[in-house]
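Lab channel / #folding
Pinned by the channel admin:
"Please post every new chain as: sequence first, then the C-alpha cells as a reply. Keep commentary short and put observations after the output so the thread stays searchable."

First post following the new format, from NK:
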Amino acid sequence: MLAKRIIPCLDIKDGATVKGINFLELQSVGDPVELGRKYALEGADELVYLDISASSEGRKTFTELVSRIAENINIPFTVGGGISSLDDAARLLIAGADKITVNSAAVHRPELIDEIATRYGSQFVVVAIDAKTIDGRWTVTTHGGKRLSERELYVWAKEVEARGAGEILFTSMDHDGTKSGYPCETYARLCDSLSIPVIASGGAGSVDDIADVLTRGKADAALAASIFHYGEIPVPTLKQALLKKGINVRI
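Reply from TO:
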C-alpha cells in the first residue's frame, strides 16, 4: 500500500507566508522558503503554496518566490492561486513548481484542465474542489466558498478526472477552519468513485481527525496549515502518532 502523505499548506501574500481567518486579519507567520525547508527537514512529504495576492505585482513576486523555493527545497511542491490560463500555469511550472492547482477558473472554464494536462501531463495538474452541503447536496463553490456554482461534487470530480487531472484536493467548506474533523463518509465515497488520489483539506484539529480521514475517509493525503504553522501538531509528532495507529507514512 502506498504511504499516506502529509502536506503543509502555506498561503502567500506579497512574498510572505500569512495566516488569517477567511483571508482577514492576516498575520505573517514566517519566510516561505525557510518555513518550507523546516517542514521538509521535519518529514513533510510535499508542500502547497497558494498565492492570495490580488495585484499583478503580487503575482510577479510569487513567480520569483517559486524560483527560490525550487532552488532551496528538495521535496515536491504545488503552487496555486489565481491560475486562470495555460500561460499562468506555464509561468509557474517553468519557474520550478512540481505541480499547479486550479480551482475557480476550472469551474468556470473546464477546458483549462484539458489544456494544462495535454501540454504538461496529468501528473502536473491538481484540481481543488471546495464544496458545501445545501439541502443535502454537495454544491461546488468558487472564490473561497463565497459563490455557489451549479456543479455537484461527485459529478464534477468525475469530470475533472476525465479531463486529465492527476489529483483532487477536496475541502468541505462546512468543516474548514472548525478543527472539528472531516466528513469521512463523503471522502470515502469520493475516493471510491475515482481512480486518482484525493487530498483531504479543512477540519483538522487533532491527530485522530487526520487518522480518520486517511483510514475511514480513504484519503491519500492530508493537507493542513494552522496546526503546523502554530506548532500545535508538528509534522514529526503527527507522523509518529499515525505510525502507532498502523497508518503507513514515510518517516
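NK: Residues 46 and 75 are 6 Å apart (CA to CA).
TO: also worth noting, The radius of gyration is 17 Å.
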